[in-house]
């Protein structure tokens, strides 16, 4: 098969799997126009339309679906075998793509990655932020990071962080003459900064606990974000009460920029886990990462 044909098929596979020329172009490191031209050339050479393009989406024709099903697994196997060649090297090497929430990247993954890459200079990382529940198989990530309670049963997982909890915080200027909440239910009388889940679109219901009993409070306010650090920024600016991971709030509490309330009501939650599909044989680089990232109390 001519080299150009192989490159054209790789381009088609990227668009078919991403369902987007923009995302596929970013993954392949080419321009969107160049990628579109390559796919059109492939369609012209095969004399069959593979993709249906609209202004909002890309879908596959019957011929496109068939081509994806037939050649996709073969290209995946080639990629696996290429990765396996790293086993012959003296040092682990390769690229590891991980998708994780904002807080997990900044406070759980990054502290581990920055020391790991010094020890293994031939291993590269792509850390992609996604606060939704991404399908790592469909989106072709090597691994994802989720809290223990969110793990899918068909995944292998390794704990990479301790239990943690959230903190309700606000500024002195916000509290002013307002009554300070003494119990979670009092939050309904305050301006609270909401967090919206990207995957479901639902607003996070603030969770508390008393004597082993769960308490959930639906709060309201002027602001909604889907990034926990934006919630923290808004709280620091005095726009309401935020409910954020304790670790990112503690420095501001210590320096007097924020005040914490309802601490005894905030429960500890299961920490973060790195998870990955069981069907794929881990590369030496991946195995080295798992062992280095594993949480040891």
TrEMBL record:
Family note: Belongs to the LysR transcriptional regulatory family.
GO biological process, any: DNA-templated transcription
Gene: dmlR_20
Protein name: D-malate degradation protein R
Lineage of the organism: Bacteria, Pseudomonadati, Pseudomonadota, Alphaproteobacteria, Hyphomicrobiales
Span of the signal peptide: none
Residue ranges constituting the HTH lysR-type domain according to the UniProt record: 4-61
Keywords: DNA-binding, Plasmid, Transcription, Transcription regulation
InterPro entries: LysR-type_TF_proteobact-type (IPR058163), LysR_HTH_N (IPR000847), LysR_subst-bd (IPR005119), WH-like_DNA-bd_sf (IPR036388), WH_DNA-bd_sf (IPR036390)
GO MF, one annotated term: sequence-specific DNA binding
CDD domains attached to this UniProt entry: PBP2_CrgA_like_5
One Pfam family, short name: HTH_1
